[in-house]
Amino acid sequence: MGLHGKIAIVTGASAGIGRAYALALAGAGATVIGAARTLGRLGGEPERNTLEEVVQAGEALPGRIRARVCDVELEADITRMISETAANFGRVDVLVNNAGLMTMYDPFEIAGEDWDRMMRINVRAPYLAIREAAPHMIRQRSGSVVNVTARAAGFTPKRDRASDGTLVYAVSKAALNRLTYFMAEELKPHGIAVNALSPGIVATDTVVAAHPELAKSAVAKPPTPEVLGPALLHLAQQTAEGLTGQILHTAEFGTSWS
Q: How far apart are the first and last CA of the chain?
């Protein structure tokens, strides 16, 4: 399916990878519901990494971006966002579960609440969003869900990486991959594609703050729609008759998959 005139939801759309995905979808002609916890400053020049700035950045694109406040830790927020999107636009065509949390912890010093919060944001929220969007997609007999995952999900610890702090993050993304496989099978009879996409190392503000060397590294991708968008747009157009139930990597788009 083409994306012109389609209705897409992107969580975590205010910055970094989510911002790039929202702009890419709007650039392809979709109406994008860009969701994040806050709108950002209202009036004057919008602040960097806010929904207000993303909306302004997309004003000249073929599609449009509409800001929507949604805290994905809150079930009621997710339910309300998707039900209001369907009520306002009559359909939900694409769901991009991008909002995520990546915090480093010593593997033997993880507080229970820290573990639970990572799971709420990285696993429970995508499940809830799929649960709420699925009835609308089933009624349409079409749709595409893209869960944003990470290579860390398949990481096998080695001696030099045993304490890199990604234990909870890796476990959450492995669970997200399992959710992807499961939902792909559940929704396949209804024509709906469900895939997971790993962006790779992206030089977002958060990543660069933790690893300044990546700002000028050829290893890290810039968080732009031109770089990150093509793989996402390809998946956003899939149905169950095309590509579904796959864990894919942006760096391999156009080579091992396309």
A: 15
